[in-house]
Amino acid sequence: MPGEAPGHPAPEQGGAVAEYLAACQRxxxxxxxxxxxxxxxxxxxxxxxxxYIFPMVNDLEEVAIDSRQCDIDLGNVTVDGLKTTxxxxxxxxxxxxxxxWQLGAHQHHSIxxxxxxxxxEQRPDVPITVRxxxxxxxxxxxxSIKVSLRPESMAKDDARRPLKIKAGKAEANGKxxxxxxxxxxxxxxxxxxxxxxxxxxxLDDGDMRYPHVYTRHSVEPGTASCIFPCIxxxxxxxxxxxxxxxxRTLGDAFEQRLATQPELNGLEGGSRKRKHGDxxxxxxxxxxxxxxxxxxxxxxxSGNLTGEQIDPLDEKKKIMTxxxxxxxxxxxxxxxxxxxxxxLWSEFRTEEADEKLGANAAKIHGYCLPGRGDExxxxxxPVVAAADYFALEFGRYxxxxxxxxxxxxxxxxxxxxxxxxxxxxxxxxxxxIIEFEIENTRKLVHALASQYIGIHIVPxxxxxxxxxxGIQWFMADLFMKTICGTNWYKFHLKTLSDKLVExxxxxxxxxxxxxHLHLGEFEMDFMSxxxxxxxxxxxxxxxxxxxxxxxxxxxxxxxxKANTEVGPLITSITADDFxxxxxxxxxxxxxxxxxxWVMGAGCxxxxxxxxxxxxxLNVDIAISQLQGSLLAKQxxxxxxxxxxxxxxxxxxxxxxxxxQSLFTGPFTVRIHEADGTPYEHYLEIREDDKDGTNxxxxxxxxxxxxxxxxxxxxxxxxxxxxxxxxxxxxVVFFNSFGDVLTSGQDETDWGxxxxxxxxxxxxxxxxxxxIRFDCNFEWLCDLSTDMPGYMYLAQLQQDKDxxxxxxxxxxxxxxxxxxxxxxxxxxxLFDRRYYHGxxxxxxxxxxxxxxxxxxxxxxxxxxLMYRHFFCDKVVTKNVETFPPSPNDFSDKAQYSIQCAIPAxxxxxxxxxxxxxxxxxxLLDLLxxxxxxxxxxxxxxxxxxxxxxxxxxxxxxxPDPDHILIDSLKIDDDDDLEFKRFLEKAIDExxxxxxxxxxxxxxxxxxxxxxxxxxxxxxxxxxxxxSIIDFVQYLQDENLDLVRLKxxxxxxxxxxxxxxxxxxxxxxxxxxxxSPFVRDRLFKVFSRGIAAIALGDHKPAQQDAPPAxxxxxxxxxxxxxxxxxxxxxxxxxxxxTDITSSLAALKEELKGNAELKNxxxxxxxxxxxxxxEKQQIMELCSAMFGPEDEFLVTFNxxxxxxxxxxxxxxxxxxxxxxxxxxxxxxxxxxFKTAPKTKYIAPPEPEPPAPEIKPxxxxxxxxxxxxxxxxSTNGGPSTPSPLVRQSSISLINSALVASPVATSAPPLPxxxxxxxxxxxxxxxxxxxxxxxxxxxxxxTPALSIIVPTTxxxxxxxxxxxxxxxxxxxxxxxxxxxxxxxxxxxxxxxKVVKLRFKAWDRLKPATLQAIRAQxxxxxxxxxxxVATPIQRNGPSFxxxxxxxxxxGSSSQSQAKTASVPGTTPAPxxxxxxxxxxxxxxxxxxxxxxxxxxxxxxxxxxxxxxxxKIKPKTPISVHRPPPxxxx
Length: 1523
Hints:
Elements: E1 12-13, E2 16-17, H1 18-23, E3 27-39, E4 44-55, E5 62-65, E6 70-72, E7 78-79, E8 82-83, E9 86-88, E10 101-102, H2 108-114, H3 128-134, E11 145-148, E12 183-191, E13 198-201, E14 212-215, E15 237-247, H4 250-253, H5 290-293, E16 298-301, E17 304-310, E18 317-328, E19 334-337, E20 340-343, H6 344-348, H7 351-357, E21 363-368, H8 373-393, E22 401-407, E23 414-417, E24 420-424, H9 437-452, E25 458-459, H10 465-484, H11 486-503, H12 510-513, H13 521-543, H14 551-564, E26 572-573, H15 575-585, H16 591-598, E27 605-613, E28 618-625, H17 627-633, H18 640-651, E29 665-673, E30 678-685, E31 693-698, E32 708-710, H19 711-719, E33 732-734, H20 744-750, H21 757-765, E34 768-773, E35 782-785, H22 789-798, H23 802-814, H24 819-830, H25 836-845, H26 857-870, E36 874-876, E37 879-881, H27 892-906, H28 916-927, H29 939-953, H30 964-967, H31 973-998, H32 1005-1019, H33 1028-1031, H34 1040-1052, H35 1059-1071, H36 1075-1093, E38 1110-1111, E39 1117-1118, H37 1121-1134, H38 1138-1148, H39 1153-1163, H40 1170-1183, E40 1191-1192, ...
Parallel strand pairs: 3-15, 21-22, 22-24, 25-26, 27-35, 32-33
Antiparallel strand pairs: 1-2, 3-4, 4-12, 5-11, 6-12, 7-8, 7-12, 9-11, 10-40, 13-14, 14-19, 15-18, 16-19, 17-18, 20-21, 23-24, 27-28, 28-31, 29-30, 29-34, 36-37, 38-39, 41-42, 43-44, 43-45, 45-46, 46-49, 47-48
Helix pairs in contact: 2-40, 8-9, 9-10, 10-11, 10-13, 11-13, 18-36, 22-23, 23-25, 24-25, 24-26, 25-27, 26-27, 27-29, 28-29, 28-31, 29-32, 31-32, 32-34, 34-36, 35-36, 35-39, 36-38, 39-40
């Protein structure tokens, strides 16, 4: 179950999972009444919702109800007519970021956390079967309204009235019972800023469309509660009564009176005057025409219309009431507007059909905006026939009537709700447009099928959604088979199967996909592709068994049972129940089928090898499955179209399903043996065939191979009886497809050829004509065989199945170019007996054979084919011309060929360009097009000719560095001719763009085609990029499809990198009033971002410096070869791995402040809805890395103060005032500072460390001195030292051990006045060199201070806080030369208290406080005695024997080695030191170093009081030998 930990099921309580109990509210909604009042001018609604609930438990005290973007009148919420306590928290308040948060695009993760309650998280999916079994109740989505069931007037101990549940079914007359069971809860509400749930059209400034409003719906819960309070649970269904109050006419909606109506005055209009406090009247957006003001407003709603009346309080409004039963909240839909009604069922159903259907005849109504009634009749005529077909094939229509409402700005093409469907007006087309009728009809029929399965019968849980979607499209395709034919049906399914095999790589199973449909429509598109195909092959396998029925009878049983019985379990469907019914209806066991095709992912890839065993007269067939190995070797390539889906599945954890290594099931093989007889063999791939499947099929023809020849050869032999041979008695004559153009003259004229004698001999030696594998279409697989090409030719010409023809054509499409293949395809294209889809495939492959080695035979055959079918032959003065014939599109199959041949001619190439002959031929078709006698429009045909002409202008390999039209040479005849043709073709393309400005075409198809053609030419660098050609079509007055195409072209050209275009795109994407435009623009924007992620486009950046160039000694220049190879590797990885693509995208957009600002403005738009905000937020996470820091603004707290004021002078006599009065005045102010500074509580004491013996420490006080020149060749002036503390606490125990090597440089310390540092250990073995620290030019004062065992800091070293500022002179790394030490008069020691605690880092401050709380506060007095120094090397004076710091130690510290690293800059003098008036001459020490004379003044004592961070004990050293 969703939400359960794998392998650890939740504990069950009374048969229900504990997780389900926590998610459910223990009550059921029996009936819900909704009263809505629409205000068109303000785009708002208000009303009251009444619930009749039945508690599942006796102690239910509170119920939770869903509501979004609404204001609830909490004071008037009632329970059984009594006011009660209620609370409401609008979840949509989180749509806006708090003003105190200064966020940006980098804080997308914080925004996601803030909006998490709104996002479609994976909440528990409680099955309907579990609810009914255990009485769990309903599952609200938000629980934003909480209503107490105990009214305010009821005491706590009062018992409620007993409740009796009644049957939730309407009466026989369709009305609900008067007595409603359960507790009655009434909630008045009013809408706020409407973002989701409703869409108003034609009410904005400049929008001249007819005003109307309709409901919007989504897959996940949350949208229905945006319209009115409800239980937004798809599985909670009840009876509904919806009353909608709306204006009577269009003029009333805008409060515009007719010209014949005088302005209302007096008492009649008194009630309509604005009262005090009312809002000012809104000025009309545009003045309506008089006939438009009289248009009647109509309400189209789910259910049956039960009443319509004039509002008794306002005669300009009317109330329409609808009732329906067994409906969930998200299945309630309605539309209000001046709709035109078309009675479809009476216009298109004959009396015979009506009598045949009887009560099963469904009443179908069409609704559209004024002026489009004829288009509705054209588009919906097949829907009536589909309703009749479904009634006879599957059962009665489950509702009283079916309503089709066409509205504007729909995101999806169709949306099904209870007893009606919303359809986009884009599906409508006039009678003379024939290109979209099959596609649009299939969508409309699918909407009707959704009423049977999806609305009336719902899935039990999300994982069963695939079954509902599959049955819907399965039913629709079965009806389309009746009007389009069996060939269309099989060709359509084969095309979908090949597409599924191509894209079903790394995708989840269709059962798991039901939990991820909220990610985007791409998941539903994949489910709509695979689910009906799975049901189709299931139907094929079930139908093979004798006496069994297919999927059609199973669906019919489900529908008939749901129509006759009542109950949630009857009207819900589970995959397990469907599977059991299938097994019951047939003898086919479905366990393995379910595991492989429903719960598994991927499609099998079969490799079939066949051979004839002459010894045993058997046909040996070996089948191996390669789906596992091929997927591992060939990673799926990322494209711009798939980037957003891959990213969504990556961040939401949608993992690929398990691909079966072995698919099993029945497999039918049909062998067409030598005598032409087909033999079918029903085989099966079993589980034990893991190493491959091997079959040996007996050969049935026991005689010698019969000679088979074509009918025309037989005719030639019959005309010459003298040449007849006795052996010719065995010849079998046959008719076949493709036996056209067989005469010698035709072969010469068309450039056809026959098989070579060697190939003909090989064909004669074969024992069978061809083999059809999976001839019953029971597998969705990629099947490759080793059959030779002549067997595929026999299959193409002699098999009657269109799928066999398609397989043969796919073999030719995958093959290499060959003149024999061109001959086969030419004859296929010429033969009109083939299905037009097969002929179009032949035309598609012929350009492959237009090469120089084949003498460009493919181009000649295509031109000859078009002239034969669609041109007239005119002979003038012995010159043959072939002008195009007048168009005649009455033969729609032939019309598809007329469109396919020009597209194929445009793809032929000769020396890198389309040949002059082909280009002129295409241009002539456009120039001499004649549609005067055609009953159908040629608008779409011309657009396809424009596309073909554009393709012919694009070279095979475009030059990325030059514009083709500018680089053509005038002195070259070919270039000059191509340039003139290019200019002429572009003028012709622009002509149709200008014609579309005054001749309106269907959906401005000419304008959109021209924009696409120009984009392709600019992208191929044929013509220079001109942005104005596209920007001029971005105005709001243009059709939505035109604006979308203009934006798409700009993004394809890489203009998204320009800030102006980027800002314009994001502004339209988040402020346009049409949700359809916003949705399509987001897809365009995401493709632009995907192009940057995949490296197709580069964002706008500053010019990078030229790459470094290396040159070897031989003069060979290597331009960073390794770097180029690595860049290519990274580019290849980013095209296959989504993680690498995202990393590359973040790197490309790093520092793009313009994009960050604009995408953040787009996110904060108040027009977009929840889904759009979520998409932008997730897009930010793809483009920018997360940052946890952002500013937060807080308001000062408001405080009040009171002051006494003088009492006012009383006008009354003094005798009347008996009481004393005190007058005070209250005033508010903002508190800007706390009363006391906040002190963080001390951290708990750390564990006591291991107690160590006390270690003596030394305090060294340095004072300034003058350094003398050394006598050993060293530098005369010592290098500057790293600035150390004025007092250092040195461990004397470590000083006694000198080291033999140079000490490493001292670490950099802060510029504090006092710091404690341990002395590095030294070794006494050998003298050490003078370190940088020993070269200081000042004497030192040394005092031995042994430490006591105390609590040490964690680092073993006392630390002092760092000062906030550091002077430049204190930085040892600054500057490259030593600075002269400062000398001057003595400075006075001043003790200052450290007060900058608030400027320290929090970690440092906490460490100081922790040490202060754990350390014992002690104070000591330390007497520092100067030590005699002998020179610049500063040897220590010899203390008493046994005292640390003996002469060996001093000598080791002062030893100087030439060539040592210069020391840092000199230390500054201690403020308390006494400067010397003049330096004494330096003396030489025995070791050769200079020394300063001893100064008697240094013997004075200095008393310092310090509070060490660790407790220490003061030990006075013994008197030194040298004072």
